Amino acid sequence: MFHFIRNFLKKIHPEGIPGPGAYVYNLLSCSDIFQKHYDFIAQDISSYETSGKVLDIGTGPAWLLIKLNKINPLFDLSGIDISEAMIEKARENIK
Questions:
Q1: In which band, very low, low, confident or very high, does the pLDDT at 15 lie, cut at 50, 70 and 90?
Q2: I need a labelling partner for 74 at 20 to 30 A (CA). Which of 36, 46, 48, 56 fits?
Q3: Span 66-95, average pLDDT
Q4: Cα–Cα distance measured from residue 48 to residue 8, given in angstroms and rounded to the nearest whole number
Q5: How far apart are CA 18 and CA 78, in angstroms?
Q6: Under DSSP, is residue 82 helix (H, G, I), strand (E, B) or coil?
């Protein structure tokens, strides 16, 4: 039943950022200003916790998770996003 409802909702409410938009967003997020922002947020999060689980809701291209992992590999990191295209970009960026 859940799959039926999910598929129905996806038809009437498409993913957050579709394929071409995810590509453009990922390119923009590689810019220096975006990357400095992700660095700042990762440092801020790391100043509160030194280990544990972190869930990035709406992870997009996963830059925050990547930055957190570089700062502290002890974090147990997870990211979710409504956009399948953004999830694919996140997987590519993580590799």
A1: low
A2: 36
A3: 96
A4: 40
A5: 21
A6: coil
